From TrEMBL:
<comment type="similarity">
    <text>Belongs to the NDRG family.</text>
</comment>
<dbReference type="GO" id="GO:0005829">
    <property type="term" value="C:cytosol"/>
</dbReference>
<dbReference type="InterPro" id="IPR029058">
    <property type="entry name" value="AB_hydrolase_fold"/>
</dbReference>
<keyword id="KW-0963">Cytoplasm</keyword>
<dbReference type="InterPro" id="IPR004142">
    <property type="entry name" value="NDRG"/>
</dbReference>
<dbReference type="GO" id="GO:0016020">
    <property type="term" value="C:membrane"/>
</dbReference>
<feature type="region of interest" description="Disordered">
    <location>
        <begin position="1"/>
        <end position="22"/>
    </location>
</feature>
<feature type="compositionally biased region" description="Low complexity">
    <location>
        <begin position="370"/>
        <end position="385"/>
    </location>
</feature>
<dbReference type="Pfam" id="PF03096">
    <property type="entry name" value="Ndr"/>
</dbReference>
<feature type="region of interest" description="Disordered">
    <location>
        <begin position="370"/>
        <end position="400"/>
    </location>
</feature>
<protein>
    <submittedName>
        <fullName>NDRG family member 4</fullName>
    </submittedName>
</protein>
Amino acid sequence: MGGRPVRAGAKRTKDLTSPSPRAGLLLQEMTMAGLHELRFTEEKPLLRGQDAELENSDVFLPTVDTDWKEHDIETPYGLLHVVIRGSPKGNRPAILTYHDVGLNHKLCFNTFFNYEDMQEITKHFVVCHVDAPGQQAGASQFPQGYQYPSMDQLAAMLPSVVQHFGFKYVIGIGVGAGAYVLAKFALIFPDLVEGLVLMNIDPNGKGWIDWAAAKLSGLTSTLPDIVLSHLFSQEELMNNTELVQSYRQQIGSVVNQFNLQLFLNMYNGRRDLDINRPGTVPNAKTLRCPVMLVVGDNAPAEEGVVECNSKLDPTNTTFLKMADSGGLPQVTQPGKLTEAFKYFLQGMGYITHLKDRRLSGGTVPSASMTRLARSRTASLTSASSVDGTRPRACTHSESTEAMGQINHTMEVSC
């Protein structure tokens, strides 16, 4: 499938958002040069007693530990609120997350990262949650006339996070708008990204019909309702009332509505993600790192994810369509997503020895995560395992068997 032509989006500021190679290079040079002049605030511990309303919500599982620390990091395009656990471990990448419109890191990722099996994996990595500007709980409202960062600028803020914490590179996990930002980040700064898990990504900008429909919807619907229609399918909105109502309450009360509207407007005004499958067009741009695309089989983003899959390099892309899952697979199917993520890490050269709690009948023992020795410039098919016998792995199914090399895009229902 070929890419769609670039559509007109919302008005952009300056030339930093231009998709041309010259402008992209300029954006990167300006951002990297600006990193040496950044000022960082002192870290603050994120205590269990903070955000009591969030922690008591049915959306979230209980907080497991108090090791999370909160930071406000200054970037070339404003402050970023970041919550982090752990410290960099050698050459191992950090896991960096970015949430969807209408959410923040807690609303989007708490259920997934508090899942027991996921914790056995993430204890071996530093985990860094990024909140889009002004979207964190308790954020101050931006002043009238504030120019919210463009999607390109949101991506260009992330190297400040990488430098501040001393990460060599990251594995990104993004949902919706966050997936788009992380994909942009990987296109502009490919050497900083080891791999990407992109849930509900839509690589296309809105056309005029979509733009007009969004404007009309804004006149007849409340902001939480508009966000809910982005997050959930019509079937979920009608049938999964408990989950939907929980998110309706949280979106309306936790996230500042003025700030949310600015983020939503910028996301709706995004341009097409400038990617094409190698060989389809001259000098095609694509994501160079391993990518796992995830979407529920009952998600409003399914069409966009399928198209994104058609535009990526099939030699390093896995397409995971999750059965019995809607618009938030990390919330409704955290177990299946955790297992897929484990295989994804194996495919990048990390080995995890985890007993399956469903088979052992007991608790999951500590995982052993070992980095495979390989150059970051080595091809996907040339890397080998620690013992020299196991090939690179990828996600085939729910099975815990060893798996073959990544050599084509696979559609997986689990």
